[in-house]
């Protein structure tokens, strides 16, 4: 089949709610011993997953997504598939597991033999991984044998990069290489990049399925329950928090300060804090704080040290950036992908705390600062992320084989589904401090909330209004952003015919 050559235009049937392609071939999984016995292993093509599961009597049922999984029929014939895999953005535990399971899933479940890794064969001569890898002269062939052990390693065997996304050149490369399934593993930036690739592929009328797999330790991708790598990051953060606790508990007025990643979203810091129970204060980008005066951080530190003799503070890298820019010259620098380059909040807050207590001369403190950020990102995925990565990879393979395209795969309320790119790209997932999870955190640390009654964000979700917060937020309890949710993408499904 390969890419559409121009002789027979792709048959795209426009349905009421998007466009639909007809399934054409029986699924070879029907002859696979693991899948052939029980009919229910296959997903009914009409199965959908509700985005909103907490509903009020009489309220609209909201958006539904296609349920992921193997179909009785597939669109692609196995020996016609030429798939490629690319990894983009920052490192994240589980990248290699996803690569492995896409290769093995395609090979073992569908008999697909041609899978390319988008990476220069010789990285010294050519562009490296990530979207830039599409510009390299060569790719690397991936087989179950070559990927067999990679899930035990951190990083990505394909390499990764930021920036350098040239849609035209990428789609040229896909077309020139005869690729008809593109698996794109990456975070929010990557999924935006995948969306424009998908649009360009559609514009050119190519018979190519584009599937996104959501990666990021920051857990900032909306709609899905969580991104892979997040669990591992939270678990690994415990080691740093434990060390901070041991250090601070062993000295007089000890303060253990741990900086964790989280550029715009404080999920790692919040979950690592909730998991540990040793943390006395957790600072995240979504919850502004202040240092001086009544109700401020310094006052709380003093109180906690008097009560307990030591304390642990966890701070997300994106927290307090507005305070830093007041004292340091504001920098508007960005990385190659356009992400804001942050000032080092860990060093800044350590110094501010030390300066305050030495100025005040009431109490001598001992502060130990731990920055484990890159160590947390570079490890292999834990057991639960490994299973999760396997499901994501297999769901993506089933979707692409069935002819779906333009989707990110991921669990919504525990069920894997195919989410159109535009849904994934319309917001970012932040900690919503009016959700109960943040209240749980505050009650576990006993830290001040740093907000006064007049700052309290009015939660109007019962009236089905989007939350009145400065950013587009996605709530964890399925109740936010109701007005954004309509039923129109239920049937969106691209089929290549
Ligand atoms: N709006 C966009 N359009 C096209 N490509 C994008 C867009 N945003 C990011 N990208 C590309 O996606 C890749 C990864 O983005 P980045 O933000 O670094 O990481 P992540 O995907 O982990 O968030 C980069 O190569 C970047 O150029
Ligand atoms: O130094 P780098 O490699 O640009 O990465 C730093 C950033 O990467 C992250 O770990 C994850 O970011 P992405 O998932 O968007 O790539 C952020 O928490 C952090 O700010
Ligand atoms: Mg990102």
UniProtKB/TrEMBL annotation:
<dbReference type="Pfam" id="PF00365">
    <property type="entry name" value="PFK"/>
</dbReference>
<dbReference type="InterPro" id="IPR000023">
    <property type="entry name" value="Phosphofructokinase_dom"/>
</dbReference>
<dbReference type="InterPro" id="IPR012004">
    <property type="entry name" value="PyroP-dep_PFK_TP0108"/>
</dbReference>
<keyword id="KW-0547">Nucleotide-binding</keyword>
<comment type="subunit">
    <text>Homotetramer.</text>
</comment>
<comment type="function">
    <text>Catalyzes the phosphorylation of D-fructose 6-phosphate to fructose 1,6-bisphosphate by ATP, the first committing step of glycolysis.</text>
</comment>
<protein>
    <recommendedName>
        <fullName>ATP-dependent 6-phosphofructokinase</fullName>
        <ecNumber>2.7.1.11</ecNumber>
    </recommendedName>
</protein>
<feature type="binding site">
    <location>
        <begin position="216"/>
        <end position="218"/>
    </location>
    <ligand>
        <name>substrate</name>
    </ligand>
</feature>
<feature type="region of interest" description="Disordered">
    <location>
        <begin position="453"/>
        <end position="497"/>
    </location>
</feature>
<dbReference type="InterPro" id="IPR050929">
    <property type="entry name" value="PFKA"/>
</dbReference>
<keyword id="KW-0963">Cytoplasm</keyword>
<feature type="binding site">
    <location>
        <begin position="374"/>
        <end position="377"/>
    </location>
    <ligand>
        <name>substrate</name>
    </ligand>
</feature>
<dbReference type="GO" id="GO:0003872">
    <property type="term" value="F:6-phosphofructokinase activity"/>
</dbReference>
<feature type="binding site">
    <location>
        <position position="188"/>
    </location>
    <ligand>
        <name>Mg(2+)</name>
    </ligand>
</feature>
<dbReference type="InterPro" id="IPR022953">
    <property type="entry name" value="ATP_PFK"/>
</dbReference>
<keyword id="KW-0067">ATP-binding</keyword>
<feature type="site" description="Important for substrate specificity; cannot use PPi as phosphoryl donor">
    <location>
        <position position="189"/>
    </location>
</feature>
<keyword id="KW-0324">Glycolysis</keyword>
<dbReference type="GO" id="GO:0006002">
    <property type="term" value="P:fructose 6-phosphate metabolic process"/>
</dbReference>
<keyword id="KW-0479">Metal-binding</keyword>
<feature type="compositionally biased region" description="Basic and acidic residues">
    <location>
        <begin position="480"/>
        <end position="497"/>
    </location>
</feature>
<comment type="similarity">
    <text>Belongs to the phosphofructokinase type A (PFKA) family. PPi-dependent PFK group II subfamily. Atypical ATP-dependent clade 'X' sub-subfamily.</text>
</comment>
<feature type="binding site">
    <location>
        <begin position="162"/>
        <end position="163"/>
    </location>
    <ligand>
        <name>ATP</name>
    </ligand>
</feature>
<keyword id="KW-0418">Kinase</keyword>
<dbReference type="InterPro" id="IPR035966">
    <property type="entry name" value="PKF_sf"/>
</dbReference>
<keyword id="KW-0021">Allosteric enzyme</keyword>
<dbReference type="GO" id="GO:0005524">
    <property type="term" value="F:ATP binding"/>
</dbReference>
<feature type="domain" description="Phosphofructokinase">
    <location>
        <begin position="83"/>
        <end position="398"/>
    </location>
</feature>
<feature type="binding site">
    <location>
        <position position="90"/>
    </location>
    <ligand>
        <name>ATP</name>
    </ligand>
</feature>
<feature type="active site" description="Proton acceptor">
    <location>
        <position position="218"/>
    </location>
</feature>
<feature type="binding site">
    <location>
        <position position="317"/>
    </location>
    <ligand>
        <name>substrate</name>
    </ligand>
</feature>
<dbReference type="GO" id="GO:0005737">
    <property type="term" value="C:cytoplasm"/>
</dbReference>
<keyword id="KW-0460">Magnesium</keyword>
<feature type="binding site">
    <location>
        <begin position="261"/>
        <end position="263"/>
    </location>
    <ligand>
        <name>substrate</name>
    </ligand>
</feature>
<comment type="pathway">
    <text>Carbohydrate degradation; glycolysis; D-glyceraldehyde 3-phosphate and glycerone phosphate from D-glucose: step 3/4.</text>
</comment>
<dbReference type="GO" id="GO:0046872">
    <property type="term" value="F:metal ion binding"/>
</dbReference>
<keyword id="KW-0808">Transferase</keyword>
<feature type="binding site">
    <location>
        <begin position="187"/>
        <end position="190"/>
    </location>
    <ligand>
        <name>ATP</name>
    </ligand>
</feature>
